Amino acid sequence: MSTTSSIQTIFRDHLFAGKSALITGGGTGIGLRCARELARLGAKVVLAGRTREKLEQAVAGISEQGGEAHAVVCNIREAEDIESGIAESIRLMGGLDLLVNNAGGQFPSPAEDIPRKGWNAVIDTNLTGTFFTTQEAFRQHMRSHGGAVVNIIADMWQGFPMMAHTGAARAGVDNLTKTLANEWGRHGIRINAVAPGIIETSGLERYDPMVRPFIEEAAKNNQTRRMGTEAEVAAAVTFLLSPAASYITGVTLRVDGGQSIFHPLCPPQGDGKMPVFEDTFDRVQDGSVP
Ligand SMILES: CCC/C=C/C(=O)SCCNC(=O)CCNC(=O)[C@H](O)C(C)(C)COP(=O)([O-])OP(=O)([O-])OC[C@H]1O[C@@H](n2cnc3c(N)ncnc32)[C@H](O)[C@@H]1OP(=O)([O-])[O-]
Ligand SMILES: NC(=O)C1=CN([C@@H]2O[C@H](COP(=O)(O)OP(=O)(O)OC[C@H]3O[C@@H](n4cnc5c(N)ncnc54)[C@H](OP(=O)(O)O)[C@@H]3O)[C@@H](O)[C@H]2O)C=CC1
User: Fold this and answer.
1) Which atom of ligand 1 is nearest to the CA of 208?
2) Which ligand is in closest contact with the Cα of 234?
3) Residue 100, SS3?
4) Which residue numbers delimit the Ketoreductase domain (predicted)?
5) Is pLDDT above 50 for 95?
6) ipTM for the complex shown
7) Domain ranges across the chain
């Protein structure tokens, strides 16, 4: 079971004391790691997702370590769920200062085979769900109180072969990030995005095992020669939500080891000499990290 105390953080204690954070997809993977870090730094957190059991297990882990966490079952593909989920989050935490739009997913498929229903599911989740979650957070709280938002997207800068649907959706969110930063800055709201490369998470385990060797191989195409860790993504999210980023809005920060700047004249070489920030995915999951 994941814990809050076993995590490394470079941020100071109580950094987010008095703040309220909603993390969609917060029950697992990158979202959970962000939630643990924010809770460890003093924020109240709501973890939102479709599966109550996963959320409650994650909440228990954070609570055991002294963090304040709540579970809200919410499918961001459903308008009513978003409206009631945001209202419930505000009720539970007494506010909504920070939003991490992390819920998302897709399935690998050649473009010619993507069925309309699958296309719609991916667009509804990653683009439409992200937009309306943010709009509802704005309408119900941030318009009058300000806030900070981070959208999790992906490395789609050269297109996204085998994942045309998510490439299109994430490019849309990259653009939305800039639009909303322009429109809502006057309300004291900053909106940024983080674009992870290939990150070792529970999410990858949901793909067909046949896909795994391709992902492993692709993950060597960056300057670290490895997959990123949840902690490396969460650190970027935490920074962008923090007061240290008070002059940053409308940007997308790439957390990909340089994957998106791959150049055929100088492809990544060697074993990878850059240290891992926190290589604890497996060990944290099985509780062996102190
Ligand atoms: C390099 C990697 C980088 C990125 C990594 C990550 O992001 S990892 C982290 C992220 N984690 C993840 O990405 C993992 C989670 N992924 C998911 O949950 C799904 O991909 C989802 C996002 C579509 C939601 O699906 P859901 O179950 O909630 O939705 P639903 O039941 O409504 O289905 C809608 C329709 O979609 C279609 N369709 C769905 N799957 C396949 C497929 N494998 N094959 C073909 N088609 C597929 C199918 O048409 C289906 O309708 P049907 O034929 O059943 O009537
Ligand atoms: N791992 C990687 O290499 C990369 C990941 N990303 C993105 O980072 C984000 C987190 O992924 P990761 O941690 O890896 O994988 P996970 O699959 O562990 O996380 C996705 C989370 O989103 C939730 N979710 C999915 N659909 C919905 C929905 N309709 N409404 C509410 N919650 C939903 C899931 O919970 P539930 O199913 O219970 O609802 C799950 O907790 C995703 O957007 C992913 O696409 C981007 C680039 C690379």
Assistant:
1) 43
2) 2
3) strand
4) 19-160
5) yes
6) 0.97
7) 20-257
